[in-house]
């Protein structure tokens, strides 16, 4: 197996939204990881979920729900996008379910 050093590893510069670097640093500390390790772990989990979805859509929905819950627990308050994603998840998983569309004036 090839040994990759920090000099030879692939590098990719990412622009983070305001506040995300601090959130990643906080979660990395809580998980006793470096920020780089935390980001790599999150990316790997995301890619695995994509593979799981192809094999088992129900398991993929469960993994997606866990990710949403994790994000909500780390945030001070849910965003409209968070709530909409949860509603879409339940709508997809519940035959005949009907949820009203969210809009920014809903006061989430």
Parts with pLDDT < 50 across at least 5 consecutive residues: 94-108
The beta-strand count equals 0
Described by strand count, sense and barrel closure, the largest sheet is: none
Structural class: mainly alpha
Shape: globular
Summary of the model, kept short:
The chain has helices at residues 20-30, 35-55, 57-74, 80-93. It is mainly α and 108 residues long. The protein is globular, with a radius of gyration of 17 Å.
Characterise the protein shown here.
- It is a single chain.
- With 108 residues, the protein is mostly helical.
- The protein has one domain (20-95).
- The chain is built from four helices and no strands.
- The model is unreliable at 94-108 (pLDDT under 50).
Distinctive features:
59% helix; disordered C terminus; mainly alpha; 108 residues
List the helices and strands and how they pair.
Layout: H1 20-30, H2 35-55, H3 57-74, H4 80-93
Helix pairs in contact: 1-2, 2-3, 3-4
């Amino acid at each position: 197996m090839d040994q990759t050093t920090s000099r030879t590893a692939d590098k990719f510069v990412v622009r983070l939204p305001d506040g995300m670097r601090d959130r990643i640093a906080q979660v990395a500390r809580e998980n006793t990881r470096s920020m780089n390790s935390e980001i790599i772990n999150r990316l790997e989990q995301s890619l695995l979920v994509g593979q799981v979805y192809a094999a088992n859509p129900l398991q993929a929905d469960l993994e997606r729900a866990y990710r949403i819950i994790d994000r909500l627990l780390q945030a001070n308050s849910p965003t409209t996008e968070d709530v909409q994603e949860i509603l879409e998840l339940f709508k997809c998983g519940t035959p005949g379910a009907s949820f009203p569309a969210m809009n920014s004036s809903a006061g989430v």
